[in-house]
Amino acid sequence: MRVLLAEDEPHLCDQVRKLLSAEGRVVDVVHNGVEALHLGSTEPYDMIILDIGLPERDGISVLRDWRNAGITTPVLILTARDGWSERVDGLDAGADDYMVKPFHMPELAARVRAILRRQSGQLNPVIEMGNVFLDTRTGRVSVDGVPVDLTAQEIAVLTYLAHNAGRMISRTELSEHIYEYDGDRDSNTIAVFINRLRKKLGPELITTIRGRGYMIDTT
């Protein structure tokens, strides 16, 4: 799952990026409102973390522009002010949730997980796929209760397919959601990750739709 983090405090950016990356998220970071507006308008993010007090363009105006353009990506706003009016402005502009700085990192991670679950219609933090279980809180995967070690890229592929179970996902879409903005988006490597997942988790978990993409069947 791919997240845009728009925040101008370098230390906080590093903390949040490490936190979300440890849970298998792909995180792009920008430090001003102009870059945030551009990437949020042109890249397929699963959610956005948006600081209200960004330089060049404030977060509220960026969020309003996204919503006016029909961009429905879930947005969690961050604010350094504890005033209720700013939180109301953010929610009225189209934010899905908010957090007031300073905050505890585990709470941020939990709110991100909750937003991603709602976005994909997943109610349980542990996604069950037959005998395969994915704990979205930790990124841990097990088969018949036995833990399985996966690489970061394998977890990213599995997580995106699991959150979109029952829907065919093309190689292009997968590559857009498991690589960073400046990463090498080689959709041909997707087949390699899929083959590895099948070897580790069972050949029947992921179905290939020839010439189109992949799917985790929920039936």
Task: List its salient traits.
single chain; 219 residues; alpha/beta; Rossmann fold; Arc Repressor Mutant, subunit A
Please tell me about this protein's structure:
The chain is of the alpha/beta class and 219 residues long. The chain folds into 2 domains: 2-120, Response regulator (Rossmann fold); 126-216, Arc Repressor Mutant, subunit A. 42% of the residues lie in helices and 21% in strands. The protein contains 8 helices and 11 strands. A 5-stranded parallel sheet has the order 2-1-3-4-5, with helices on both faces. A 4-stranded antiparallel sheet has the order 6-7-8-9, covered by helices on one side. The longest helix is centred in the middle third of the chain and has 16 residues, at 105-120. It is globular, with a radius of gyration of 18 Å.
